[in-house]
Amino acid sequence: MHDLSKEGFNIHDFLHEGNGEIWKAAVHYGPRGYVKWVAIEEKAEGGDSLLQRTKDDPHFLDGFERVAEGGGVALYRAE
Predict the structure, then answer these.
(1) 3-class DSSP string for the chain
(2) What contacts 49, CB < 8 A, 6 or more positions away?
(3) How buried is residue 49: exposed, middle or buried, by Cβ count under 10 Å (0-12/13-18/19+)?
(4) How many other CB atoms are there within 10 angstroms of residue 27's CB atom?
(5) Which residues pair with 73 in a beta bridge?
(6) Which of 36, 41, 69, 72 fits a disulfide with 48 by CB distance 3.0 to 4.6 angstroms?
């Protein structure tokens, strides 16, 4: 997120752990309806909490399609 500031993005453009209740709801119910894009770290330290969530719930990313990957990160877009 911080690296994208050079491209004009602000930390408030992202949903992340620091967003409190909305983050918790998106993780619990799935990101559809909360965001249009999801980036998941799949490699570093065994992956992030979203990778674990996809393993625990195969429907977590329903409504999203994987559109890119690289550097250990996968990018999903809402359909």
Answers:
(1) CHHHHHHCCCHHHCCCHHHCHHHHHHHHHCCCCCCCEEEEECCHHHCCHHHHHHHHCCCCCCCEEEEEEECCEEEEEEC
(2) 17, 27
(3) exposed
(4) 17
(5) 41, 70
(6) 41
State how far the Cα of 70 lies from the Cα of 73, in Å rounded to an integer.
5
Residue type, 31: P
Tally of CB atoms within 10 A around 13: 10
Per-residue pLDDT of the chain (79 residues; tens, 9 = 90+): 777 788 888 877 788 888 889 999 999 999 999 998 999 999 998 899 999 999 999 999 999 999 999 999 999 999 9
Taking each helix axis from N to C terminus, what angle separates 21-29 and 49-56, rounded to the nearest 10 degrees? 30
